[in-house]
């Protein structure tokens, strides 16, 4: 059994969040004390300031900054909202309550702080992420969607009412939801040697039934389609804190490919964050070449699939050899296949044959 | 603490499934022994044979039947497929493996039993449900989607590797996934007095954080939008086996309303089944009248919403007073609201004020 690296990483994170928010507030107070109109400077999130970094292997923000000052009447509205958002999430974090982007939107109304629409309030939260340099999940603003995990990892909760309680994530064989409680838990110990992330619920259940977690000493993560940010962050933690390699299995089509890519290299929207990516994770299948090699039942690519593949071909995240090769192969064979297509060879073929072969190939 | 009603309801169900499938097979063998071309008769699932029954308060099939005989060359294909499907799910059930509709589609190809498309193979599984009188979840064919539960219910697993193991469903404060293992578990004991089903993940988490399960002695079920069939069946079991009243909370719009209705009265597609409905469950909100009474932030109804409301108005499941009143009210105020709209009054208002008021009103 490995020992977790950092006993209290989560409590420290909470302190860091509160300190970051308070620091932001104090700056404004200081400015006012000095008789200056409060203002802030933050990295610009406009497209011309987003670059793909080969070094950190994800999108990052460039050097351009934007200034918002209460001296400018057009800035007062967004600046005030940003301050309100900081106050709101400070309260959430302090009371250890969680919330959603949707709640933030409606909660503002209690303060006569009506946002024009949901995108506007989402945008303010992203601004706040940029200013404080932390992600909204750190502020206890969680996504609606839930994914799941199963395997030999013992965690210790930090949420109120469960502090200090430990649970092994094999306790419930349908999988444990990855929500605020799990995301904020500390890792105690694990017997696992790797993480296997899976796109589809049916396959996640199959892997548990076929004891993939035992046979391959793996933690199984269900991404349930595009992985929610909290899940991407959780995979990042499994990789960094527990040193576990991460293998991602998706459908064999441009959309599955991109599910893997977003876990690995993140999205342009989150260029201001570093905790959502796992650059060392590997996309282990299903590749276009697998469709050919395993003679899988397949469907023809649609025009939308083909258009998407051409986009991916130009995407800086797809520069690597594997990605370019597979994009080309998809375009050549003009076919796609789902993970369940392996059932063509019997329900356990994917576990008995395909999985070990791919893990060997991509390790 | 109440005691569960039926110690081994689930094991008995499995025996019943296997017996039902074997019985179907034996009939065909007997026919052949007698020198008769194998044939079957089953209730027709065509629209003209689906009726809403006030008595059982759900859609049911009428008396029309269809015959499929191997004497008729056009019947051989569907009949053979039905037999194959029965064999396939018999094997699943026997080996206690689970599967999805998608797996069934692909698995057929291993037997050169290619289905034209997914709807065709889904349809054969529904035929099999009709013939055997059990639902596909009983045959271990589960949906992809997963919902969740949280609260004081101790269950005992029956799935391989976990037989006899008990777990209390407050063990993980993000909620326990409702998958094959939970669905097939026996109920051991509960301290709960009611079930509260919730449409949205964010609110489910809020309810757990605000200890609704303790304050109202409730089991909390996340439907995650339209409840998967396995979840509807699970709610049915909580209601029947544990005598727990069920309250359903959804968004205040025609779609939320219908999420509640499908849990209560089921769908026309499942008119041949009885275990997916909970006719005594109540839709406790969010009603159109709540939008007015609580002065909630709202959005205008779209044309699609309005069209849907007119459909619901004519739907036989919507004959009840509450439903008719609310459909009319929606059409009158031309507004809809989401559950999160209560955040307008602070994050805990929904738990402190709205929930107790509605539970009292609809109990």
What does this entry look like structurally?
The structure is a homodimer of 363-residue chains. The first copy, chain A, is 43% helix and 18% strand. Chain A has 363 residues and is α/β, with parallel strands linked by helices. Chain A has two domains: 2-142, Arc Repressor Mutant, subunit A, CATH 1.10.10; 147-362, 3-Layer(aba) Sandwich (Dna Topoisomerase Vi A Subunit, Chain: A, domain 2), CATH 3.40.1360. A six-stranded mixed beta sheet of chain A has the order 11-8-14-13-15-16, with helices on both faces. A four-stranded antiparallel beta sheet of chain A has the order 1-12-9-10, with no helix packed on it. A two-stranded antiparallel sheet of chain A has the order 2-5. In chain A, β15 (246-249), α9 and β16 (282-285) form a beta-alpha-beta unit. The longest helix of chain A is centred in the first third of the chain and has 25 residues, at 9-33. Chain A is globular and about 75 Å long. Chains A and B meet through β6, α3, β11, α5 and α6 of A and α3, β9, α5 and α6 of B.
Topology:
Two copies of one chain form a homodimer.
Chain A: E1 2-3, H1 9-33, E2 39-43, E3 50-53, E4 58-61, E5 65-69, H2 73-94, E6 99-100, H3 101-107, H4 118-132, E7 141-142, E8 147-150, E9 153-156, E10 166-168, E11 176-178, H5 180-183, E12 186-190, E13 194-198, H6 201-209, H7 212-215, E14 218-222, H8 229-242, E15 246-249, H9 254-265, E16 282-285, H10 288-293, E17 299-300, H11 303-314, H12 321-333, E18 335-336, H13 349-362
Parallel strand pairs in A: 6-7, 13-14, 13-15, 15-16
Antiparallel strand pairs in A: 1-12, 2-5, 3-4, 8-11, 8-14, 9-10, 9-12, 17-18
Helix pairs in contact in A: 1-2, 2-4, 3-4, 11-12
